[in-house]
Amino acid sequence: MAVTLSESAARHVSKYLAKRGRGVGVRLGVKTTGCSGLAYKLEYVDEIAPEDIVFEGHGVKVLVDPKSMAYIDGTELDYVREGLNEGFKFHNPNERDRCGCGESFRV
């Protein structure tokens, strides 16, 4: 079981946490929504919950709740720039389909 970060994602998270002045990392999870069923949720975290599964890559912690782990095991969190757009991308080997708008996915 693993969730990883690219170097680019780790740099972005580290920079944001430094600017924010606090935080231990990011929490990656899923929520039920959208036309395909699941959507990623990503938030900055100030403290680790006892049930969190903790991964670390390039000096940045990624926290995952146990319920989400089944859907995102093996996912790499990346941060990319495409033209004028930039943001996080999720490379999830469990994804079987993604909705047309890109907001949700199915495993």
What can you see in these coordinates?
- This protein is α/β, with parallel strands linked by helices and 107 residues long.
- Helix content is 20%, strand content 45%.
- It has 2 helices and 9 strands; from the N terminus they run βαββββαββββ.
- The strands form 3 sheets. A 4-stranded mixed sheet has the order 3-2-5-4. Strands 1-6-7 form a 3-stranded mixed sheet. Strands 8-9 form a two-stranded antiparallel sheet.
- The longest helix has 14 residues, at 7-20.
- The protein is globular.
- The two termini are 16 Å apart.
List strands and helices in order, with pairings.
Layout lengths: L3 E2 L1 H14 L4 E9 L3 E9 L7 E5 L2 E5 L1 H7 L3 E7 L2 E7 L5 E2 L6 E2 L1
Parallel strand pairs: 1-6, 2-5
Antiparallel strand pairs: 2-3, 4-5, 6-7, 8-9
